[in-house]
Design brief:
32% helix; single chain; globular; Nucleotidyltransferase, domain 5; 3 helices; alpha+beta
Length: 88
């Protein structure tokens, strides 16, 4: 039996599996910065800023909303209370 067919199926399966998305956030008092990267270290967005208010948080969420929630990991620095609104 030819194994090339099963190798092709295996490659197609792994191509369809969603990769993990990592969101790095630099916390500040008024303006935060974020960037998205996949698990292959490919930048998915340029670093972008968002304000420390509901409009800014909506912009932040929109950046990764198209990805499945179980595939998104958000990392942020533990900077005093500036992160409190973002986490809520």
């Amino acid at each position: 039996m030819d194994d090339r067919g099963s190798d092709r199926k295996r490659r197609n399966y792994f191509a369809e599996v969603k990769t993990m998305i990592y969101v790095g956030v630099d916390i500040a008092k008024a303006t935060h910065y974020a960037c998205l990267m996949d698990d292959k270290h490919t930048l998915l967005t340029k670093p972008f800023s968002f304000s420390n208010d509901e409009a800014g948080f909506a912009k932040f969420r929109a950046a990764f909303q198209k990805h499945p929630k179980d595939k998104v990991v958000v990392g942020l620095e533990s900077t005093s209370t500036a992160r409190t609104l973002l986490l809520s």
